[in-house]
């Protein structure tokens, strides 16, 4: 060993050239016959310097400069690192390729039994679609891989798509991997549950139809209402649940169990998907009937469902919904005469706002004699009294047939307050009694 060519850090001139990637200097040194196997105080030779510092051309020159390149490639530092270990640890894939083609052992181990592959492994590396190893492991349900990646520093908050919302927790929830979800919940930043430009994993659990994952998230404090989800096009997890036919009732019950707030959009979706028993159930669970911010969307679905109005409209109006909200151009101009007459039964149709009277008059001029007669008739005193009594009741009382039946009135008046004769005249089928428990297919 020629110590006259060593620098203060004991690195040889050949090693320094390899470290700096200085091909010109290295070529001159090799022509002069300078040694390529001089080690420094760490046991590092020039090939280790070239591999670690990604000096590709210098590495090729060093390999070709020795008689037994395979043995030279396999030389190790004092800690047992060969050139392949060092290149892999830095993610220098080109160096790794050159070394493997030259005969480097991919299974070589350090003094700590570490292979190059364990070191070419960046736990937070991302594919072209930004998927991380942790995301893929969570998606595929490989619990041991998830545990290893997390213990090795994998970032559970590294977004795994271009829109910056999808995390490993979303993959686990959507695919139904409960053990992985349980592992990721305490590690994941909760901003994904509340951020306006993010997506709560509650949506992923609902989208996948996995009730156990959904309940697990809600048990740990995730919101059953979450934020509006522009990615999927839903305003709440409850709205998304309507897409999941086979798991629908279980998902709805879980969301309600953890306090999901009902609104008119949920009623609208009931009409859209013709889930009329759920419509009545939501009314019984206290879905607000005013004020509404999405009345136009509700009426849009209501118009399309008006053919089956006998299955939902009586429940809505008996629950105290103001029929004036329905008496708008889209409803008056689109529904059948029977549907319109039924709606008017819950009003004093001779004392409507002028704009509504004008629309009804226009509609009646081209409609059946029955509609014309109804609009022209004068409501009975009994009907006006019914409207007055019902208007004095609280919303929660109107939703309860049992409350009205317990009023200190004759049974005939109970029936009158419940519009029994109107329902009978319109052949409305007897509505199934909705219990306070969970909603089910049988309901």
From TrEMBL:
Q: Using the record's annotation, list all stretches that form the SOCS box domain.
A: 376-423
Annotated ANK repeats reside at 9-41, 79-111, 129-161
Q: Which SUPFAM superfamilies match?
A: Ankyrin repeat (SSF48403), SOCS box-like (SSF158235)
To which pathway does this protein belong? Answer: Protein modification; protein ubiquitination
Q: Which domain of life is it from?
A: Eukaryota
A Pfam family assignment:
SOCS_box
The reply to whether Repeat figures as a keyword in the UniProt entry is yes
Listed PROSITE patterns: ANK_REP_REGION, ANK_REPEAT, SOCS
Cite the entry's keywords alphabetically: ANK repeat, Repeat
Look up the record and give one Gene Ontology term from the biological process aspect: intracellular signal transduction
The record's PANTHER family line, in alphabetical order, gives:
ANKYRIN REPEAT AND PROTEIN KINASE DOMAIN-CONTAINING PROTEIN (PTHR24198), ANKYRIN REPEAT AND SOCS BOX CONTAINING 3 (PTHR24198:SF184)
In its UniProt entry, what is this protein called? Ankyrin repeat and SOCS box containing 3
